[in-house]
Amino acid sequence: MNEKFFDLKKEKQDRIINAALKVFAENGYKRASTDEIVKEAGISKGLLFHYFISKQGLYEFLFDYSAKYMMLEQSMLATNKGTDYFEIWLQLLGVRAQVMKNYPYMQLFLTNSVLEQGAELSVDLFDKIAAFAEYSQSFFVQVDDSLFVEPKAAPKVKKMTELTINGLLKEQFNEEVFDAEKYYKLISDYLQTLKKLSYR
Length: 200
What we know:
By secondary structure, the chain is mostly helical. It has one domain (8-198): Orthogonal Bundle (Tetracycline Repressor, domain 2), CATH 1.10.357. It is 68% helix and 0% strand. The chain is built from nine helices and no strands. The chain has helices at residues 10-31, 34-41, 45-52, 55-74, 85-102, 106-113, 123-137, 154-172, 180-198. Helix 4 (55-74) runs parallel beside helix 7 (123-137). The longest helix is centred in the N-terminal third of the chain and has 22 residues, at 10-31. It is elongated, with a radius of gyration of 18 Å. The N and C termini lie far apart (52 Å). The mean pLDDT is 92.
C-alpha cells in the first residue's frame, strides 16, 4: 500500500474506503469487482491501483484499517466486560452503531472476513482475521451462564443471538438508506426479548 493515500483529504479517503467496504462486504473477495469499487468511489482504476497496487492489497489494507478502527472504538469496553451476555452485546452493538455512522459497511465487512478462507489472500491476513475473531470473543470470557434458565442450553442461545445480530445487520442493507440508529434500536429490541426468554 502506498502511504501517500493518507495524504488525501479525509473525505476522499473515506469515500474510497466506504466504496471498497461496500463492494467487498456485499460480494466477498472473489466476486468483488474493482470496476464496481472505482465507480462507487468516483475515481479512476489507475488511482486505486496507484495507492493499493492490487485487489489483494486493497482488501488487506481494509481489514487492517477496519480491525484497528473497531478495536480502538471498543477499547473502553475491554476493561469492563461484565458477566451479563446480553448487556455485553448491547454495549458492543452501541459502539458498532456509532462506527457505522461513518463507515456503514465496516462491521458487515469484518463479519464476512471470516468466510474468506478459500480466497487468494496472504497467510498473514488469515492470522490477523483469526486474531481479531479471538479478540471479539474476549469480551465474553466472564459471562455467567448460570443466569440462563437452562445453563446447558447457553451455547445454543448464544449461537441464536449471533445469527440474529448478523441476520438483522444484513437485512438492514436491503433498505434504501442504512440507518445505524434504527439498526441499533431494532437489534436492542430483539436482544431484550431474547434475554427475557432466556434468563431466570
